[in-house]
From TrEMBL:
It comes from Pseudolactococcus plantarum. The lineage of its organism: Bacteria, Bacillati, Bacillota, Bacilli, Lactobacillales. GO terms for biological process: L-histidine biosynthetic process. InterPro entries: Aminotransferase_I/II_large, HisP_aminotrans, HistidinolP_aminotransfase, PyrdxlP-dep_Trfase, PyrdxlP-dep_Trfase_major, PyrdxlP-dep_Trfase_small. One of its GO terms (molecular function) is histidinol-phosphate transaminase activity. The modification N6-(pyridoxal phosphate)lysine is found at K207. The gene is hisC. Pathway: Amino-acid biosynthesis; L-histidine biosynthesis; L-histidine from 5-phospho-alpha-D-ribose 1-diphosphate: step 7/9. NCBIfam families: hisC. It is an enzyme of class 2 (transferase). This is Histidinol-phosphate aminotransferase.
């Protein structure tokens, strides 16, 4: 018997099946390839650069992001995916001993980090219609707040003025806004940065920049918050963004028009696909992301999940417990892929 071993329920990501010729719409990856500039940076990357450590401050990437967002470099920290940044943010900002608040239905990792880092937390139920109720986060004692906007896996978006009410009412704690899906039609909380120094926004290259495999994400906040999280990062894994990742992510930031184009197309396909599912009688939540949460009609979510998988179409099913058990989360692939999905589902009815 070995003493002291940690026992924890881990986050369970969507499957990464290795089969060929599948439609993989289960983990919200981008439907399109990375930009031409990214592929060029990859082919031109000099292997000999790998001999040295990557830059400590990720200057080039932070500078490119600062220029793009119209903020200062001291307001940005980059990491190994936004999961890395979010985990560091939990460690850095939630040490008061009071419970951190987040919705009962949101990105599953928040609860896992709170458990892992032994941070007390309270899950606030979304409404019957899966809406975040702003008033639930106002006037309630807490040690911090985490909100994904748009939320995952619901896809539902909260307006900037409602986010501001929450940030404003909680100026003694850090409010994290996870903007993993902000490029698909939502409204960023960035304008709040100039007024509030308790807001910390996280973003990722995984979804909108089609670079899930590269592992780059970033956080945006006041220079004070950034210096706190930077110190924690440097106490743990200072070189979390490797030099290949830094150079490719920097190239991605430069290719705005390519990314605006593909993400607009994904948003259009989403709205079309949503109408198609609605026409079949499915309940579909209004999404501002690259996925839809839907409740099938006439068949259980689980049965449809298994049926689609047999047809080599992978969607996400969250298991048969809780409010999500009647729903499937379907990422938005190319128009051709989604047309196939509509045909396959249509054949059942
Ligand atoms: C995908 C996702 C992330 C994590 O993305 P990384 O790949 O780690 O950058 C964070 N938050 C939400 C809500 C996500 O869906």
């Amino acid at each position: 018997m070995i003493k002291g071993l940690r026992n924890i329920a881990p986050y369970v990501p969507g499957a990464q099946p290795q089969e060929k010729n599948i439609i993989k719409i289960n983990t919200n990856e981008n439907a399109f390839p990375p930009s031409p500039g990214v592929l060029k940076a990859l082919s031109e990357f000099k292997g000999n650069r790998l001999r040295q450590y990557s830059s400590l401050d990720n200057h080039d990437l932070c500078q490119a992001l600062a220029n793009q967002l119209g903020i200062k470099q001291e307001q940005i920290i980059v990491g190994n995916g936004s999961d890395d940044i979010l985990a560091l943010a939990f460690l850095s900002f939630f040490n008061s001993g009071d419970a951190v608040l987040f919705p009962d239905i949101t990105y599953g990792f928040y609860k896992v980090w709170a458990d892992l880092f032994q941070i007390p937390f309270e899950e606030i139920p979304l409404s019957e219609t899966f809406e975040l109720v702003t008033g639930d986060y106002v006037g309630r004692k807490n040690g911090g707040i985490v909100i994904a906007n748009p939320n995952a896996p619901t896809g539902i978006f909260k307006t900037l003025s409602e986010i501001e009410q929450i940030v404003k009412a909680n100026q003694d704690v850090v409010v994290i806004i996870d903007e993993a899906y902000i490029a698909f039609g939502g409204e960023s909380a960035l304008p709040l940065l100039s007024q509030y120094d308790n807001i910390f926004i996280t973003r990722t290259f995984s979804k909108d920049a089609a670079l899930a495999g590269l592992r780059v994400g970033y956080g945006i906040g006041s220079p004070k918050l950034i210096s706190v999280i930077q110190a924690v990062k440097n106490s743990y894994n200072p070189y979390a963004v490797d030099s290949i990742a830094e150079s490719l992510a920097t190239a991605a930031v430069m290719d705005t028009s390519y990314y605006d184009g593909i993400n607009a197309e994904i948003s259009q396909t989403r709205d079309w696909f949503s109408d198609e599912l609605s026409a079949l009688g499915f309940e579909v939540l209004k999404s501002k992301t690259n996925f839809l949460l839907t409740k099938p009609r006439g068949v259980s979510a689980k049965a449809l999940f298994e049926f689609l998988q047999a047809k080599k179409i992978y969607v996400r099913y969250f298991g048969d417990h809780g409010r999500l058990s009647d729903y499937l989360r379907i990422s938005i692939g190319t128009r051709a892929e989604m047309t196939k999905v509509v045909t396959v589902i249509g054949d059942v009815f």
